[in-house]
Design goal:
The chain has about 260 residues and is α/β, with parallel strands linked by helices. It contains 10 helices and 17 strands. The strands form 5 sheets. The chain has a 7-stranded parallel sheet with strand order 6-5-4-9-12-14-15, sandwiched between helices. A 3-stranded antiparallel sheet has the order 1-3-2.
Length: about 260
């Protein structure tokens, strides 16, 4: 399962080599994982299961920078230890991360309906979904009900994404979604921002946090030297990861070239 999470899709032959098992054993294991909703079997292999048929707006955003988002999500997944209580915001990169966390012994608090659906049934992962009003294009729940549920938890780590970064901080397009992200930050011991470098210098109306108000930034490289220095000077730990070198499924489940 880890190999499929890492690559997004794998052949039976590759999995047999990785696991040191026969192809017949791998096929039986994939059949069991498919029954659990963890993978989708394909001709000669399997791919990570996609829980929803995503709307056009979300699917369009998912297609942009798919390999960068996959690389950032992989680096974020490596930070998640057993038994943590984590928060996951909505967005395409967090959706990819959610699939990578399936089946881990963790507790996930999210305001994103699609993130909850991606994790649904993946025991022993426990999922807590906030209430609130649904934003149709992002699948996120917002408003007072979402705020109240999130504030009732204490989170070990919160993973969030953003739509843009300027010298003033990290921003999103929607003020209601940004407000929920700020609530998550307020109840979290550690905040980790998942960032594609293409968003550096991009302005959006709703500020989520200042550059120094997150603990870690995971970004795909290479990062322009000026931005790398600016982020580091603000205080967060900056983790630069290389884009993946293989074809990956995007957040909507479409296989994209690296």
């Amino acid at each position: 399962m880890l190999a499929i999470h890492t690559r997004g899709t794998c052949s039976v032959a590759d999995l047999a080599v990785i696991a040191g098992a026969s192809e017949a054993t791998i096929r039986r294991d994939l059949a069991a994982l498919e029954r659990q909703g963890m993978v989708d079997r394909t001709w000669g292999g399997a791919t990570a299961h996609v829980a929803l048929r995503y709307r056009e707006g979300f699917a369009r955003r998912a297609a942009v920078g798919a390999s960068a988002k996959h690389a950032v999500a992989l680096a974020a997944a490596a930070l998640v230890q057993p038994n943590l209580v984590i928060g996951l915001s909505g967005g395409t990169t967090c959706t990819v991360l959610a699939r990578m966390l399936r089946g881990r012994p963790i507790n996930v608090v999210t305001n994103a309906v699609n993130v909850a659906a991606e994790l649904y049934g993946a025991r022993p992962t426990k999922v807590i979904l906030s209430g609130g009003a649904l934003k149709a294009n992002s699948y996120e729940l917002v408003g007072a009900a979402a705020d109240a549920i999130i504030r009732s938890y204490h989170l070990d780590v919160f993973f969030l994404s953003c739509s843009g970064v300027t010298e003033a901080g990290f921003t999103r397009r929607d003020h209601a979604e940004a407000a929920v992200v700020r609530t998550f930050r307020a109840v979290s011991e550690r905040t980790v921002l998942l960032l594609e470098r293409s968003k550096l210098g991009r302005h959006n109306p709703a500020r989520v946090a200042g550059l120094g108000e997150v603990d870690d930034v995971i970004v795909d490289g290479p990062v322009p030297a000026g931005w790398l220095a600016r982020l580091a000077a603000a205080g967060p730990r900056v983790h630069v990861c290389d884009a993946v070198a293989w074809n990956v499924p995007d957040a909507a489940g479409v296989i994209r070239p690296a």
